[in-house]
Design a protein that fits this description.
heterodimer, A: mainly beta, 4-stranded antiparallel β-sheet, 51% strand, B: mainly beta, 61% strand
Chain lengths: 114, 109
């Protein structure tokens, strides 16, 4: 089945130690998104790629960066994780061409900071 | 700016009907999505409304009033597995989605 896959499901890192989260998709969608979701809060968009065009949200900290080496893969890099970065990180995709096309989410990576 | 409000929690009984409301104030509004999110899992798409009125999909229906900035999700014949968070999300463009904080629904036996 076509899907959005995030690895790993659970990630533990140390305070200040760089960490990379991965997302891959078999839907061949143009757009890939990264969201941060904390407990009982709305998913917060960090950035998205439309093809190779990177779009950063104005309030996304510089500590968060992303790479999209090809259509299928997208990475979230956290350069120096702080305790406040502990959250669920959701990757999503969409075709991006029409407003009625829903975003398809991966199962998320839950990040813990020690 | 974008602002979306929905109740934090709701409780209902198995077999009953529940209505989850959502109000929104967004610029460049195109349509309204509803997603279901079980604890520790990804949001899954439930419905999309772009025109005023009611869209029915089996046990789930969604309503939109663009002039009032208001939507609701109606769940009928509630089942235990419907216990989840329900997220309202406003679409501003083909790539812009703003989520509410979600309504945690608990279905009791």
């Amino acid at each position: 089945d076509a899907m959005v896959i995030q690895n790993p499901r659970y990630q533990v890192t140390q305070f200040g130690k760089p960490v990379t989260l991965s997302c891959s998709q078999t839907l061949n969608h143009n757009v890939m998104y990264w969201y941060q979701q904390k407990s009982s809060q709305a998913p917060k968009l960090l950035f998205h790629y439309y093809d190779k065009d990177f779009n950063n949200e104005a309030d996304t900290p510089d500590n968060f960066q992303s790479r999209r080496p090809n259509t299928s893969f997208c990475f979230l890099d956290i350069r120096s994780p702080g305790l406040g970065d502990a959250a669920m990180y959701l990757c999503a995709t969409s075709p991006g061409s029409q407003v009625d096309q829903p975003q398809h989410f991966g199962d998320g990576t839950r990040l813990s900071i020690l | 700016g974008q602002n979306i409000d929905q109740p934090t929690e709701m409780t209902a009984t198995e077999g009953a009907i529940v209505q989850i409301n959502c109000t929104y104030q967004t610029s460049g509004f195109n349509g309204l999505f509803w997603y279901q999110q079980h604890a520790g899992e990804a949001p899954t798409f439930l419905s999309y409304n772009v025109l005023d009125g009611l869209e029915e999909k089996g046990r789930f229906s969604s309503f939109l009033s663009r002039s009032k900035g208001y939507s609701y999700l109606l769940l009928k014949e509630l089942q235990m597995k419907d216990s989840a968070s329900y997220l309202c999300a406003a679409s501003g463009s083909a790539r812009q989605l703003t989520f509410g904080s979600g309504t945690q629904l608990t279905v009791l036996p």
